[in-house]
Amino acid sequence: MAPDSCCLQLVLTYLLCDTRKRKLRSLSFRLWTFPVLVDGPFGVVSAAEFIGIILFILYFVFSMTYYMLDSVSFVSSFHVPLAKSCELILSVMGIRFGIVGLFCMSFLFLPVSRGSVLLRLIDIPFEHATRYHVWLGHLTMALFTLHGLCYVISWSLAGRLIEEMIRWKEIGVANLAGVISLAAGLLMWMTSLHPVRQRFFELFFYTHQLYVVFVVFLVLHVGDSVFSIAAGSVFLFMLDRFLRFWQSRAKVDIVSAACHPCGTMELVFSKPASLRYNALSFIFVQVRELSFLQWHPFSVSSSPMDGRYHISILIKALGTWTDNLKSIITDVEEKTRSNCGSDQSQRITASIEGPYGHESPYHLMYENLILAAGGIGISPFLAILSDIIHRVEQGMPCEPRNVLVLWSVKKSTELSLLSAVDAQSISSSVSDKLHLDIQAFVTQEIEPPLEDGIVEGDQKIPSIFVKNGSAMSGLVGTGDNFWAAMYFAASTLGTVLAYALVQVYYVKRFTVYAWWHLGLLLLLCMVAGVALPGGLVVLLWHLSEKRRMQDNRWEADAGAGLDGAGAERTRNGAGGAGTASAASLAALWTTRYGCRPKFQAEFTAFVERVGGAAADVGVLVCGPSGLQTSVARECRSQNLHRGGGKSGAVFHFNSHSFDF
Known about the structure:
This protein is an alpha/beta fold. The protein is built from 22 helices and 15 strands. Helix content is about 55%, strand content about 15%.
């Protein structure tokens, strides 16, 4: 079915949706959760994203067609020779490509501002926004490349290529600065292509730091007036980057660090009680023993209901960085067991950025919930399950009443990760209100291993504790909105004031007219506005957070209790609690070997159990792209064929996966 007809049918289907439902969400929310395209270069695309892509393409085609016709008409009016006419057309088209590229660049930096106030206001989480950054990055660099090629060909036809490339004008654009900026952009672009990024992630990561060179020389190339097209998004990115710099300076205490027998690591970090997050959040982690520049994102595996003073993540060893981290943890554990813990030659110095993610926990909006995970993708769903169970147990607002977990793993040893769900939470009082069904699929084993009973116990080697000096900072992510607003206001006013003073006391006084000089002054004013008045607000914010942490700091006995709780949180002991957990999970847990989930059958059976055609089902998926595609395709199929032999329910697709 053609994409446009799919989109039309999706919209019509939801406009005719059953109005007798107790809660109807807005059309915009439904468009965001309707998968329209599930295959192709864009990955899984919702109806809202599809509409946005179509509008952007229409703008691009219209603007470039208009500019091209206008350029040809403009050059033809001079009645110059054909060779000169070609040069002029290429030059004018080069300008047009550059202007449209700057317009695209005005959106380029917004998605990568992880803690941006703007992203929080429109509730687009960073893991979704990165896709928009990738799309915009490809388009922006394609336009800038065409911009450069037009001029290179034009200068070559005129026989002055080298002369023009190294030219640095006072009035007009500085060509050499543009060449340097384009070269940096091309290097970032080439190393960010999917095959290169997948195989050489560190090369992609380090070359992407050239964005500083790219932006600075772009400003020198076009000057202040032209750069103002994209200055707003660059300024918001600078705000976010400066704030993340402050947060990342702290060395965070590791309450517990240990390795599961299946090879997965679990880290539990100390956090202040005032730091808010939800079960859909994720954090960026830096381990200084491995790299001072690399920050890796991980979904949280703990719920805010699990404890006020800690947050945990699960890490699977899948690459160089994670393999080295596992080696460090193992070495420290061995030294601890051999009474060599006082040796500080091997330690884990961790810093945290975040938490980031959805401002609102949308997993609590659906009465019926399907969680589809692949491998370590179960990590955020452990947090979701824990969050739902605690809320039901404590009588807090919580919509989910029917939850189906579909988890695919390669080996049965990975199933032990489910033991991270607290045993006492799965009680009879909870099971009466919450119908939980866990379906595990082991794809590379055709029968249970002999030690299958041991898998559920998940006996781990002892965890370690690392004292680095502080808890996580609350300056980023879902932090204090008052201080975030003050920071934004102070930085903006500081930038405007600095630019006004520079114009009055420097530009006019010394008659500064060079474009590159004016552009550099604008950029310096932006930096000064963020660093000085913005930095003062951040300092006051930091001191406020520090004082609040001191007021709520643990007493000695409470800290010891938390350490024990953290260790218990990260492993099931050999005592009665662990046994109770295994028994409770076993009653809700079905394992199938040598097969994968058949989503059509699973979705249909789930809807029949929870209410048939009247069901409104939220579907969350976390895992590889193949899993996301399969789940999205089934959601689209179920929605498009409502009442045509399928379940008739409405399936809302939500992806919690992102890949750099």
